[in-house]
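Suppose a colleague, Dr. K., hands you the sequence of a protein chain of 231 amino acids and asks what its three-dimensional shape might be. Before reaching for any lab equipment, you can write down a predicted structure in token form. Begin with the sequence itself:
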Amino acid sequence: MDWLNVEAIIFDLDATLVNLGGFVNWKEGQERVIAAYLECGCNTELVNRCREKGLFDMLNVMWDELYASLPREKAEHIQDRAYCALDDCESRGADLCHLMPGCTEALEWLRQRNVKMAIATSNSTVVVERILVRQGLRNYFAVVVGRTPKLRMKPHPDQVITCFKMLGADPRRGAVVGDSPRDVKAAKAAGAYSIAVPASFTRRKTLEEAGVDKIIESLKELPDVIASLEL
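The predicted structure, expressed as tokens, is then:
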């Protein structure tokens, strides 16, 4: 068994381990989120301004606005309502998505070398758990941190830092694997090495601008990259 310098790896879920997003109606999801914010009494002008940023950017901006202007408990309640509005849309894709190439092989290689693993994702924790069980991946991950009103989502490092803490691992001896600039930025902000597996819709230039350390074509390449790291 090879000895590795990497102590822990935090994975993104969608478009990294599985292709969930291709089976989710994100437009419907955004409309549900908007309705949830308005039902909670959020300022219509603010919500409409944020909706132009796209779904997950909208959620992040609204998080900042709510926590800056309301008591934490109230802000958490509203953000939780918005997050829950997405759950049903995501759950429809949970039984349809499939593993990305090289996923199981890479995870098994890491487990055999005692690398701690976790998931930090903007997806629903309930949906993620369902997918992991269905795909036979649950036992690979000691920690799953999905979207929660208590933590800012990527590109903020909150979820990634929480994963490393729960694993009892030092981010400086860890890596984050994801498909987007959000994952890269979260990794760098947490002090971890960043590995990108670009999805078909990901522009490499945006990964490079985010400061990615390594780009690979699929998870099939991950073992070689991890084996070569000297953190």
